[in-house]
Structure formats: structure tokens, C-alpha cells
Amino acid sequence: MKPKLGLVLINGRPPERKGQHFVYYLFLEASIETASKTTQILGLRPTMSDTVTLYNEADKLKDAGDLDGAVAKLQEALEVDETYSLAHAALAVVEQKRGNHDQAIEHAKKVCDLEPNDAFSYTALSVTYQRAYAGTGEMSYIQMAEDAMAKSREMEMHR
């Protein structure tokens, strides 16, 4: 089956050009890969749905035990939107499982930077530090874990 591709008219007009990007809608009767390729061919900016799709693909790869594949998909999602906190959070988990504790910590910290008012982000950072300690025996991670958890509790109390 050939993919059907069309540009949706908005109020009877083609989408507006905004800066370097077009506001657009594609409808497809094809795979997500075809949608991504079409977006690239047309030179259009990837959408948030692309990042969600990449995140979901990474999650499936992680569940199947393909951690390298999951990392690649999550990094691809961050190329689309470097502020996509779910991708950073997932990378923290996957990198930890791969034994890359420094990278895991950097992604967990990035989530806290992107979501500074989210207590759970600090709880997750604390867990990342705890796992880094368990994986390395580096004592400094214990204090960092306690500090992150204290920040989380403080935020919870002031809600």
C-alpha cells in the first residue's frame, strides 16, 4: 500500500510559515518511520509526537533488553527536543543499567534542571546517586543522595 500523504488546510488556507519552521499536519496511512522520513525529506521541523514516538520505541527496546538501542532512540529524541525531560529520565535509568553512572547522574540532574519544581525529579536523582554508590563504592554519592532526597522532602512539605 502506498502511503497517503496530505497537508491539512487550516481555515481553508495552507499552514502559516513561522520563522524557519512550518506549522503543519501530516496524515499518513503508513508507518511512523515513513512519517519521520517524509518530515526529513520535506525539510520540516520534527514535532513533539516524533519525540514521543522515539521515547516509546526506546521503551520497547529497553524492555526487550536492547539497552544500546534504547540509548540510541532516546538520544535521537533529544536531538529533536533537548528539553524532553522524559528522555533524560529514561537515559538516567538505562545508562545506570549499563553501568555508566556518571552519564546517568548527568541525565538525572538535567531532569531536575528542566523540572525544578517537581519533587519526584529530586527523588529520582537521589536513587540515581544511591545506585551509583552501589555500583562504584564511591562514598561521596551517599551525601549527594541524601541532599537530593532532602530537597525532594522540602518541596513536598511546601506544596
Can you characterise this structure?
By secondary structure, the chain is mainly alpha-helical. It folds into two domains: 1-45, no CATH class; 46-157, Tetratricopeptide repeat domain (Serine Threonine Protein Phosphatase 5, Tetratricopeptide repeat, Alpha Horseshoe). The protein is built from seven helices and four strands; from the N terminus they run ββββααααααα. A two-stranded antiparallel ribbon has the order 1-4. Helix 2 runs antiparallel to helix 3 (67-80). The N and C termini lie far apart (53 Å).
List keywords for this structure.
159 residues; mainly alpha; Serine Threonine Protein Phosphatase 5, Tetratricopeptide repeat; 2 domains; two-stranded antiparallel sheet; 7 helices; 65% helix; disordered N terminus
Topology, element by element:
Blueprint: E1 6-7, E2 17-18, E3 21-22, E4 26-27, H1 32-41, H2 48-63, H3 67-80, H4 85-97, H5 101-114, H6 119-136, H7 140-157
Antiparallel strand pairs: 1-4, 2-3
Helix pairs in contact: 2-3, 2-4, 3-4, 4-5, 4-6, 5-6, 6-7
